[in-house]
Amino acid sequence: MTFIRTLLFNIWFWLWSAVMNVAFLPALLLPRRVVMAGQRVWAMGLNWGLRHLVGLRWTVRGRGNLLPGPVIIACKHQSMWDTIIWHIEVDDPAIVMKKELLRIPVYGWYCRHTKQIPIDRAGKTAALKDMLVHARAARDASRHLIIFPQGTRMAPGEKRAYLPGVAALYRDLGLPVVPVALNSGLFWGRNAFTKKPGEIVLEYLEPIPAGLPRKEFMSRLEDAIESATDALEAEAGKSSTGRG
Predict the structure, then answer these.
(1) What is the rounded distance in angstroms from the CA atom of residue 168 to the CA atom of residue 174?
(2) Does domain 57-243 have CATH number 3.40.1130.10?
(3) 3-state DSSP assignment of residue 2
(4) Which of 51, 134, 137, 159 is deepest in the core (most CB within 10 A)?
(5) Contact of 44 with 149, CB cutoff 8 Å
(6) How far apart are CA 241 and CA 244, in angstroms?
(7) Is 184 within 8 Å of 79 (Cβ atoms)?
(8) Alpha-helix runs per DSSP H in 141-209
């Protein structure tokens, strides 16, 4: 049954994405906010499919910790869902993304038009400088900046060092950071065909004020995200056991 529900969702994913991509092509000639509105509708449609075809719901905790913009949102990354949800959660997100994604036809055009923040992960110092140029523009436009501090999707329970990009943003922009934990990888894994029913939880954690020394900031950020993520994964495991 899970296979069939997943197959139906995957068909819905591609059909809905194709329709939205084609329908909003004329919006590339219009102000950025028009495309952002289309991305929000696209994201809502995908989450509708997850709920009604897969049985996968989502809930958000701690929204009171999300400060008015601009702030840096540093989010755990386990699933493709983590990139989709920000088009719903935040009115005008500026997402730090792999530069090579801009070369994808249509999708890349939309990312350029909405002024997302590209980073060349192989470019080192030059790449960080280029990222900061785009990030400053987003900050000056009072947008929330979204970054995945480990740089890639991580399987639940997997550990990897946090990359310097988030520290560079924190130091250069002078903004507070809102850590975010989640458990999406338990239900929609990295490169996994199967999507499982259940409930994804996304949790905003206590903001980290601007101006801390780099080492203290990185320690606080990693401790907050990793401990809260571990707790969400354990909670989901207990809930699953209880249902069984």
Answers:
(1) 10
(2) yes
(3) helix
(4) 134
(5) no
(6) 5
(7) yes
(8) 164-173
Q: Which helix (H) or strand (E) holds 46?
A: helix 32-49
- CA 230 to each of CA 44, 156, 233: distance values in angstroms, whole numbers, following the listed order: 27, 8, 5
Tell me: the pLDDT tens digits for 34-62?
Answer: 999 999 999 999 999 999 999 999 999 99
Q: Which of 133, 128, 139 is nearest to 168 (CA)?
A: 128
Confirm if 46 and 16 have CB atoms less than 8 A apart.
yes
In the prediction, which pLDDT does 244 show? 41
Report which of 171, 152, 155, 172 is spatially closest to residue 233, judged by C-alpha positions.
Answer: 155
Q: Which residue, chain included where needed, has tokens 């903004």?
A: 175
Beta bridge partners of 73: 146, 178
Under 8 Å between Cβ of 69 and 138: no
What's the rounded Cα separation, in Å, for the pair 166 and 179?
11
C-alpha span between 162 and 83 (Å, rounded): 18
Contact (Cβ atoms closer than 8 angstroms) between residue 117 and residue 94: yes
Could you tell me where the beta strands, DSSP code E, fall in 68-176?
72-75, 94-98, 117-119, 145-147
Closest alpha carbon to 225 in 163, 182, 196, 173:
182
pLDDT in tens, 74-130: 999 999 999 999 999 999 999 999 888 888 888 899 999 999 999 887 767 788 889
